[in-house]
Every structure is written in structure tokens, then in C-alpha cells.
Design goal:
By secondary structure, the protein is mostly helical. The chain is 84% helix and 0% strand. Helix 1 runs antiparallel to helix 3 and helix 2 (32-41) crosses helix 3 (47-67).
Length: 125
Amino acid sequence: MFSNFDSEILFAARLLLGGAFVFAGLRNIQNAALVSQLMTTRGVPQARLVLWLGIVLQIIAGALVIAGIWTAAAAACLILFLVFATPMFHNFWDHQGPERASRINGFVGNVALTGGFLALIAQSL
């Protein structure tokens, strides 16, 4: 069904999409105290536990996307992650000036990632 070139492009797409989440999960481990505190101020109950569940989800689902294993399910899990994380960390409506612009960029980036995962799901079904 796919030529070798198509397979290589698809692998590059999975590597970039999944790799972004593996990287983010590893980065969140380094910044766990700060991120947990931010989540607490945003009203997340049991923020530390939720953070660590999110980190595990990012790393495992990201790795599954990269490997092409259970791709649709892993991509769906990452979409669900984005649905909850995006308004929590990219709440542009609460900010002004350069901070607002930065948050809008993060929000739009996460919307684009969601689109990429939807395309990956469509391709893998």
C-alpha cells in the first residue's frame, strides 16, 4: 500500500509527533516541582499525582507513536492529554502583552499537534 518513501515520511511524522511528547515528559520530570506548583494554583486536585500520571502518559504514548505500535490508541491518548493540558498551561485569556502572545502561540501549537494526531489516527485505521 505504501511505497518505501511513504513509509519513511510516515516514520518521520511519528518520530516528530511522538518525540515531542517523550521530550516534554522528560523535561517535566526535571521541572516537576515547578509544574506541580503551577497545577496546584490552577486548581488541579492532587496535582503531583496528576502530573506524574501525565508524564508517564506523555513518555509511553509518545514512544508508542514513534514505534508505530497501537498508534491510533496512543495518538488518541495524547489528544486527550492535550485537551486537558492546553487550557491549563496556555491560558492566554488570563494574560496581556508578550505573555499573552506566548500563550496564544502555545495554544495554537497544541491545536496543530491535535490535527497531526488526528491525521495519524486516520492513516492508521
